[in-house]
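Entry 12.
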Amino acid sequence: MSQFEKYSDEKLLVLLKESDPKAFTEIYKRYWDKLLVVASNKLSDILVAEEIVQDIFLDIWKRRQSIKLSDQIERYLAAALKYKIINHRHRLAVAQKFVDYSKKAEEQNFYSMENYLQFEELKTKLEKLVTQLPEKCQLVYKLSREEGLSQKEIAKRLLIAEKTVEAHLTRALKKIKSGLNYIICLFY
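Predicted 3D structure (tokens):
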């Protein structure tokens, strides 16, 4: 039995402030197990509990000369442990939120990319369907849908009747619609 085992907490604190490593070792021996039991009961991971308790003692040693404790080292250690556990749980919660957010963002990016690829594929199919239309029908469709001209403007430009433009558009839209319906059925 060393002489330090007989010292009160107050005496050990005085010696600790004087940077006595044996006083620190005695405080460590007295309270390590108690703190570890409490920490391991509060946390699900014994390794994390050990790390937290170790950090508390490391902080005490680093701040030994400036630490302001009277005779209540046990109360100080309990408060430090409580703070460290709360801080650890907070960091876990923040990390989990980040993981959840990352997964959600990844899924959204995947679906955005998937939607983009489907859109591009559908656009390609539509362009192919348009190229399969008869020449005049194709021209009327492009002037209407791609250039945004009205039937009257198309009729003037092509020197044909509005009813003819309407007939070409109707024919084009029917063929495109039936072609797209077939493609959509294949997708889904």
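Annotation: The chain has a mean pLDDT of 85. Residues 39 and 85 are 7 Å apart (CA to CA).
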